[in-house]
Amino acid sequence: MIDPDAELVRSAGAGDARAAEALVRRHLPKMVGVARRMLSDGAEAEDVAQEVFLRVWREAPRWKPGQAKFETWMHRVALNLCYDRLRRRRERPDPDAGLMVADTRPLASEEWLARQRAARVNAALAQLPERQRAAIALVHFDEMSNIAAAEILEISVEALESLLARGRRALKAALADVAQDLMGGPEGGP
Mind listing the pLDDT tens digit for each residue in 102-161? Predict the structure, then answer.
């Protein structure tokens, strides 16, 4: 297995700040993206990504190539950090949950509709069990192969496919009333 990050990790582990910066540039959007999809919160997603790269800096000197791709390890760290935050949320209820604050800025109708659709999809995604949400985020949003996503989740490809199938069914059911609109059908089309 050839790891495209191996040389950068080795250099970062030796204290090369430019190599560490290159790793951040290469992987920051992916780390923020998977965390945002898991947590539905941009600020928390950025915090998770920052923690991932702090761990990268700490662990790079001890990284042993060949066991797994470095990017796989980073995704695993990001998901574990997300799982921790989700557990803490369940333990501590949010006093502001359910409060809706109206956005008074005027929006173009298409932009508003797109935001509404995205909010519905994100809300439905947030209702999925964590492992289904992670599987869908990795495969559909981060465009990973089933093999890579299964490796990150530390499960078999068959188990991943099962998570994907259950997650897709749940999303389809949760979005059934707006499916026609989301697909650009007659009700949502021009």
Answer: 555 444 566 666 777 778 888 888 899 999 999 999 998 888 899 999 999 999 999 999
Letter string b/e over residues 147-178, b meaning 16 or more CB atoms within 10 A of that residue's CB = ebbbbbbebeeeebbebbebbeebbeebbeeb
Burial class (CB in 10 A: 0-12, 13-18, 19+), 16: middle
Give the list of residues 6+ apart from residue 147 with CB closer than 8 angstroms, or none. 157
3's CB contacts (< 8 A; 6+ apart) are 9, 65, 66, 69, 70, 71
User: Amino acid identity of 148?
Assistant: A
The full length of the chain comes to: 190
- Whole-prediction pTM value? 0.61
Place of tokens 């188990």: 159
Closest alpha carbon to 73 in 58, 97, 52: 52
User: In the predicted model, what is the mean pLDDT of residues 160-181?
Assistant: 86
